[in-house]
Design goal:
By secondary structure, this protein is an alpha/beta fold. The protein has 38 helices and 13 strands. It is about 65% helix and about 10% strand. The N terminus is likely disordered.
Length: about 950
């Protein structure tokens, strides 16, 4: 190729003072020679020097060259002058339309005179201009025309430039796989026909090295760099040196060797260069701005990046402007100049959305995500993550860099060579078509037979694998059951030793045994679950429920765990009271395994994000954690049981394998993604009943009565819920709303006042609460005479045995951990209230109540003794009312009413009347007076009313009772 083809590849801004002697020599040659070809070549060389250093003189010389064709004796002179005029306008940043017009004139004139070498050069510059101006359709049309001419004249010398242009076109469009293939083809076809071909090939080799750098294939990248640098020793052309330094700077930047990158770039553009020289080097300015940004030299980064932004805006070069704006936004983020950063991001997004999908738009969204993280708008960050994933998926559909390899490229090269050869030997191939058809038919028969044989072998193999899988499942089930007994026998003595041993070192060792034996039990349970799935025995149990509230109850314990581990945890759960059919146990295992896995592999100060949404009866769960050391090539293996990257790292166990199997059982999907060291699991689960693995449990009508309740009781028991999390209270309230009167409080202080006022039948309280925690609240309840008898259940996210022990020491009646099982919570409440009913029954039978066979605390016992003492004094006082009773015992009438109702099952009025009747029955039995005397002695003024009340309680009159006695 001629020397001026080099301008297609290289930078125009090099000092040309060293060409002073060459200018003088070319000027003398133009005036002396009469050979028109020598004159044209001399003008071309001279004008190219002036274009890069002295534009006014260049225009003068272009006009002189054009005037050589005044009598149509030198059409090549005019074709050359048109070409150089386009180059002139290109260097003076003039109208794109003028540049295109002169390039087209040049191609038309050179084609007309059949100067195909010059036609090729002019055509390449025209196509390159279209590509730079992002006019891809026009570039493809001209490139196709150029390729057709090349095939027509069968001139392979042009293939290198054609494939190079295709490589540049596809790179600009974001088809990096096709770009790399064509660049390698260009390298294959390079021939050293002209002196400048060395410079052209150096540029091509470095472009290939840049692609392999993107692919993280350092071996291939270094191979092509080495080839380029060896060729560089054969030329000292300054523009070639500039181009080489720029590409090496770009490659070192991609390898994050920023100091090396700057050492190359500053050889072209020194930081001390003035703004006057910089605009002509905006590609370099952009790369230097990006490099300085990475090493946090922000003043220099701003200088060069802002220059690049201005110049690319003038040139209307959207693609490079997107890069410049994105880098400017990154600089402003580091400067905490968030408004300016957001402004640049928004402009870059608008420009990127109008272009082909490339990695540039991914970089824009990554910068926007970083912006939202900086301002702590995590909801907006999640939205940007989803938008980025959308474009990333589109990009991956279009091109897959990770699957490129040179063997595939070589295959494509050979294939294209065959196509070219077929075009030139079409007649010869036509005669041999029948032989080709015969060979193809034989191949088809051979392939068909091989496929059939392979298919039959696959069926046999599948049957064997199925048998092996069944044997494996049975083995896991059996061995897992066998493990549970010895593990239990390990845990129990260890717990005893922990209580007996005081040595701290020994206790730590015992705690290690305890922790790992607990972990082994969890693994055994997971193995049992997997064996059930493998054997087909596990079914989905679908029950109706509010899934958003259920998820909130699952996530709350992890919020506590995040505080303990100093990890940032963000949960975004859709707010909806709509009911769906779902398997709570399976959803719980999926969520807890994924979130626990994120906590397990996240260092301190990293971010874990959980989000859920329901759309079109489809549950979407997303769990992501930053700071992951997982590589992209490891993602498909994460769901393998006990997968381990290498011997020095922990494996992932079977938790993720169980999650994958449970999602498959649900006929859902789970995918993983890794971006900027952030690992994400995205689960989609259909909330429908159209699943052969599912069993639907219909919603039962709940009864409003409680077992062992008296038939005359019409009031529902009162249940007090205490939790600072409103969603958790809503979940528990939903469990009990049909059977209980529900009271709610958001902290211990409020709950204590409410309990003393309303005297509930049972209390369910959280442990971690503001103002007064659950342990202190329990202590206050159990030591207060008003509330000491009330059953109290503690719920907590703390799962340690120390927390459990502390809960029981606080005299709580039960201690349950979150996430809790709904049925266990309901059964616990019912059991505690049922135990209270036993006291009611004892009271109705005994004259003096004793805490025999009934679990009551010392405060309750003292209260009962106080009741008896007051009764002994006031029993015969007919004026002694329930108000007097409440006043004497030190409570309000309502408080006494609620306490007696809950403790003994009667109101204060009923209690007074019943105690008088019990005493009268004893007196009647002993014969201590007649009926009237006894009635008056126990506080009844009206004998007939006494007889009526007596009959209601003992189902006989006082006279009949005496006879029976």
């Amino acid at each position: 190729m001629k020397k001026y083809f080099l301008l297609l590849l290289l930078f125009p801004t090099v000092s040309f003072t060293q060409y002073k002697k060459e200018i003088d020599s070319l000027s003398r040659l133009i005036h002396k020679t009469k050979d028109i070809q020598i004159k044209v070549d001399s003008y071309r060389e001279l004008i190219q020097i002036y274009i890069t250093s002295d534009l006014p003189t260049a225009q003068t010389k272009i006009n002189e060259l054009k005037n050589l064709n005044q009598n149509n004796s030198c059409e090549k002179c005019e074709a050359m002058s048109d070409f150089l005029q386009a180059r002139y306008y290109s260097m003076s940043l003039n109208s794109s339309d003028k540049i295109i017009t002169y390039y087209k004139k040049s191609t038309d004139r050179s084609f007309k005179i059949k100067d195909y070498d010059f036609y090729s050069i002019a055509m390449m510059h025209l196509i390159n201009h279209y590509v730079n101006k992002n006019k891809m359709d026009e570039a493809e049309v001209e490139l196709k025309k150029y390729f057709e001419l090349t095939k027509k004249i069968n001139y392979t010398d042009y293939y290198n430039s054609i494939y190079y242009l295709y490589g540049k076109l596809y790179k600009r469009k974001g088809y990096n796989n096709l770009a790399l293939k064509n660049l390698i083809l260009a390298d294959k076809y390079f021939k050293y026909k002209f002196s400048d071909d060395i410079s052209i090939r150096i540029g091509d080799l470095l472009e290939i090295a840049s692609f392999y750098t993107d692919l993280k294939n350092k071996e291939k990248a270094n191979l092509y760099i080495k080839k380029a640098l060896q060729l560089l020793k054969k030329t000292n052309h300054p523009i070639t040196v500039v181009n080489t330094n720029f590409k090496m700077g770009e490659i070192e930047y991609k390898n994050k060797n920023y100091s090396k990158s700057l050492s190359y770039l500053t050889q072209i553009l020194n930081p001390k260069d003035t703004a006057k020289t910089v605009p002509y080097k905006y590609d370099i300015a952009l790369l230097m701005g990006q490099t300085y940004q990475e090493i946090n030299e922000l003043s220099k980064a701003s200088l060069y990046t802002e220059m690049a932004v201005r110049e690319f805006t003038k040139l209307q070069d959207s693609i490079y402007l997107i890069n410049a704006l994105t880098n400017n936004a990154k600089i402003n983020l580091k400067k905490n100049n968030y408004p300016s950063a957001k402004k640049d991001i928004d402009i870059a997004k608008r420009l990127a959305q109008k272009q082909e999908v490339t990695l540039d738009i991914i970089d824009v969204y990554n910068t926007e995500i970083e912006y939202y993280k900086k301002i702590k708008n995590f909801e907006a960050a999640l939205k940007s993550i989803r938008q980025k994933d959308f474009y990333l998926n589109k990009y991956n559909e279009k091109t897959n860099l990770a699957n490129l390899n040179e063997q595939d490229i070589i295959y494509q090269t050979e294939k294209k060579e065959q196509q070219i050869q077929l075009l030139s030997t079409q007649n010869e191939l036509a005669q041999k078509q029948k032989y080709i058809y015969i060979i193809l038919l034989a191949l088809l028969v051979l392939v068909g037979g091989s496929l059939l044989y392979g298919y039959r072998n696959k069926i046999k193999t599948a049957q064997k694998l199925k048998e092996l899988s069944e044997l494996k499942s049975r083995f896991f089930a059996n061995i897992s059951h066998e493990f549970r007994t010895p593990l239990t026998l390990i845990k129990s003595p260890v717990q005893s030793l922990q209580n007996e041993i005081s040595d701290v070192n020994q206790k730590n060792k015992l705690q290690l045994i305890q922790t790992n034996s607990t972990r082994m039990l969890e693994l055994v349970d997971q193995l049992l679950e997997l064996s059930k799935i493998d054997s087909g025995n596990l079914k989905l149990i679908l029950k109706n429920g509010t899934i958003s509230l259920f998820l909130k109850s699952l996530i709350e314990p992890f919020e506590f765990q995040a505080k303990e581990k100093e990890i940032h945890f963000s949960a975004s759960i859709h707010k909806s009271l709509e009911n769906h059919l779902f398997d709570k146990d399976v959803i719980e295992k999926i969520v807890t395994n994924l979130v626990s896995n994120a906590f397990k592999y996240s260092p301190q100060d990293e971010l874990i994000v959980f989000s859920s949404s329901v759309e079109n009866s489809n549950l979407k769960l997303v769990v992501s954690n930053s700071g992951s050391d997982v590589k992209k090539e490891d993602l498909p293996k994460l769901f393998e049981r006990f997968y381990q990257k290498n011997e020095s790292q922990h494996g992932v166990g079977i938790g993720l394998a169980l999650v994958k199997e449970l999602v498959d059982l649900y006929k859902g999907t789970i995918v993983t993604s890794l971006e900027n060291d952030e690992l994400s699991f995205i689960v989609n689960i259909p909330l429908t009943v159209a699943n052969e693995n599912a069993v639907v449990i219909p919603t039962k009508e709940t009864s409003s009565t409680i077992e062992n309740a008296t038939t005359c009781e019409t009031e529902f028991p009162i249940l007090l819920l205490v939790d600072d999390n409103a969603e958790i209270r809503s979940v528990i309230k939903d469990l009990f709303k049909n059977e209980y009167q529900i009271l709610e409080a958001q902290n211990g202080e409020t709950a204590l006042k409410l309990a003393q006022k309303e005297i509930p039948d049972c209390i369910i309280s959280d442990v971690m609460m503001p103002k007064m925690d659950g342990f202190e609240f329990t202590k206050q309840i159990k030591t207060n005479e008003l509330t000491s008898f009330i059953p109290l259940i503690l719920l907590t996210a703390k799962t340690s045995e120390e927390a459990h022990l502390e809960g029981l020491k606080s005299t709580a009646d039960a201690f349950l951990t979150k996430p809790f099982n709904n049925d266990i919570v309901k059964a616990t409440v019912l059991q505690l209230i049922t135990e209270r009913k036993k006291l009611h029954k004892r009271y109705s039978q005994e004259l003096v109540l004793r805490p025999v066979d009934i679990v009551i605390n010392s405060v309750e016992e003292k209260f009962i003794e106080k009741l008896q003492s007051i009764l002994e004094r006031q029993l015969s006082n007919s004026e002694f009312t329930s108000e007097d009773f409440a006043s004497e015992i030190g409570m309000s009438r309502m408080q006494l009413h609620r306490k007696l109702k809950s403790l003994l099952g009667v109101s204060s009025t009923e209690f007074l009347r019943n105690e008088r009747l019990k005493v009268s029955a004893e007196l009647l039995k002993k014969g201590n007076g007649n009926i009237s005397e006894i009635a008056y002695s126990v506080g009844f003024n009206d004998v007939s009313y006494f007889s009526k009340c007596f009959k209601e309680m003992y189902h006989c009159t006082p006279s009949e009772y005496i006879e029976k006695s």
